[in-house]
Amino acid sequence: MSPKNHTTIDARHALRLTQVIKKFITHNTTVIQPQQFPPRVVPPGPRLLSRYSLGRLAVETARAALDANHNQQQFIQDEYLRRGMVESAYVMAHLHDIDQFTPSSTPSDLGHNTVFNHVMNTNPDNLQPGHFHQLEASLNNEYPDQGRYLTKNTMLSPYEKAEDLMAVGAPDDMINAYINSVGLSPESPSLAHQQQYDNMVQQPQPQLDVHTSLQVQHPDLQAEVAEVQL
User: Fold this and answer.
1) Over the stretch 170-221, which tens digit does the pLDDT of each residue have?
2) Same-domain check for residues 54 and 107
3) What is the pLDDT of residue 126?
4) Domains in the chain, number
5) Sequence-distant (≥ 6) Cβ neighbours of residue 130 within 8 angstroms
6) DSSP code at position 45
7) Domain assignment present for 166
């Protein structure tokens, strides 16, 4: 990965991020209601954010700004920095004055994103959870090579999930119920599933004797095959 490509993706995302936030927050006044976002019990913690795509991070940023959730905003800023996306992290540092904020660089190759523009032009009162799924997908389509930023692509381990619950301030009853039911294993379920798959692939497959199978299951057909072979 060249520095030029790295900067381009970061700059593109920083600009889109600014556009999304300005859509939902104007002059420190929210223009949509939290319930318009997809429902959830608790916000994602740092471990889950590290698995998010760039499109989903953008939507989560807008939600954290709308909720005035400063802890969540810091988690997201830290995640951008972890990925080396300095310009996107810089946007996070300017949520308080986003109206006057302009990204340090303005890419000229954004192109026309029909779905993104449709969501941005939708009346805020008419926004539904589905619009945010569209927004996420439209941004991900702009970054087909964003995989370079996703250093963690496994499912959360029970231990990581418990850490996230504590980090976001989930109720003690919820944390205790989760630990009591799932435990605190540090192993990701993804690794266990992969091991099961590898074991299945490595197991020798039984060889099928066609003539025996035909004779047992279809004796008449077996006789016809024998006549043809003669």
Assistant:
1) 999 999 999 999 999 999 887 665 556 555 666 665 555 545 544 545 555 4
2) yes
3) 85
4) 2
5) none
6) -
7) no
Whether residue 51 is contained in a domain is answered as: yes
The structure tokens 């993104």 sit at 116
With contact defined as beta carbons under 8 Å apart, do 49 and 164 qualify? no
Query: Positive or negative, the Cα torsion across 55, 71, 20, 63?
Result: positive
Q: Quickly count: other Cβ atoms within 10 Å of residue 87's Cβ.
A: 20
Q: Which of 46, 86, 43 is nearest to 62 (CA)?
A: 43
Chunk the chain into consecutive blocks of 10 residues (it has 230) and report each block's average pLDDT, rounded to whole numbers: 55 90 68 72 94 92 86 95 92 87 72 88 85 92 73 86 96 96 90 59 57 49 46
Give pLDDT, residue 25. 75
Cα angle, residue 49 at apex, residues 47 and 54 outer, rounded to 5°: 150
Report which residue type is found at 122: T
Q: What is the rounded CA–CA span in Å between residue 10 and residue 142?
A: 12
Sign of CA dihedral 24, 29, 34, 35: negative
Same domain as 222, residue 127 = no
Same domain for 102 and 40:
yes
Q: What does DSSP say about strands 25-26 and 29-30: parallel, antiparallel, or unpaired?
A: antiparallel
Q: Which pLDDT value is given to residue 210?
A: 47
Task: Identify the pLDDT of residue 207.
Answer: 58
**Are the C-beta atoms of residues 33 and 128 closer than 8 Å to each other?**
no
121 and 225, same domain (yes or no) = no
